[in-house]
């Protein structure tokens, strides 16, 4: 399964990229998940092409390749620095431009959200900004988001949050293949149940309308 990472860090080195890499390593390391990181998208390298997309109406070559990677991924890790209590403008612009070119690029796709900031007071950015954004884009956001303030690096707690979020993403990425197939016995039982429901259903009148009282009576338990 293909995992793509989108990092919106601006500096080099970047704590945002560091968090993204640790989340990717933890997800790829889940035993038996079969997840591999196929690409890391550094949004800052695409800033000019993102701006041109809004004025020209189509992405440049590098941005188009990044969009293809994101759309073709089985799962995403997205990490942004916090500015003014929200995601960065460049981070938002990347996904705005993506939705302009392909409105359903993230539909049904598992996404792990992460953010970095100078203080823990901004940790709710995950819930009031990132989670609604990706829910709007029809993505499936993992329950655990990971926020790392400056004091979290090297302190207790961050590793546990990373591992929990990575496990949830890996489970979601493999979720469809893990759904057990319906057995022949279960199929026969379901068919018999549907037949019994049809037999117990009240008969419609000549005009096709079943009185409401008859519908209620059909739902009452026997005896």
TrEMBL record:
Keyword Oxidoreductase: yes
One Pfam family named in its UniProt record: FMN_red
Keywords of this entry: Flavoprotein, FMN, Oxidoreductase
Gene Ontology terms, MF aspect: oxidoreductase activity
InterPro entries in the record: CE1759_FMN_reduct, Flavoprotein-like_sf, FMN_Rdtase-like_dom, NAD(P)H-dep_FMN_reductase
Keyword Kinase listed: no
Highest taxon listed in the record's lineage: Bacteria
Leader peptide range in chain numbering: none
NCBIfam families: LLM_duo_CE1759
Name this protein carries in UniProt: Oxidoreductase
Organism field: Streptomyces pactum
């Amino acid at each position: 399964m293909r995992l793509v990472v989108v990092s919106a860090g601006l500096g080099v080195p970047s704590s945002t990229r560091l968090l993204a890499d640790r989340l990717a390593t933890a997800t790829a390391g889940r035993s038996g998940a079969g997840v591999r990181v196929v690409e890391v998208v550094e949004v800052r390298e695409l800033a000019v092409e993102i701006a041109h997309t809004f004025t020209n109406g189509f992405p440049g070559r590098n941005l188009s390749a990044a969009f293809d990677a994101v759309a073709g991924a089985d799962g995403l890790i997205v990490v942004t620095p916090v500015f003014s209590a929200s995601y960065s403008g460049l981070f938002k612009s990347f996904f705005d431009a993506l939705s302009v070119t392909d409105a359903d690029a993230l539909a049904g796709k598992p996404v792990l959200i992460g953010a970095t900031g100078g203080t823990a007071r901004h940790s709710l950015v995950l819930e009031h900004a990132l989670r609604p954004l990706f829910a709007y884009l029809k993505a499936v956001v993992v329950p655990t988001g990971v926020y790392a303030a400056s004091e979290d690096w090297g302190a207790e707690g961050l590793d546990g949050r990373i591992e929990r979020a990575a496990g949830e993403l890996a489970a979601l990425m493999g979720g469809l293949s893990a759904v057990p197939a319906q057995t022949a016995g279960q199929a026969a039982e379901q068919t018999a149940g549907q037949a019994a429901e049809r037999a117990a259903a009240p008969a419609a009148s000549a005009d096709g309308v079943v009185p409401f009282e008859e519908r209620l009576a059909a739902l009452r338990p026997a005896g």
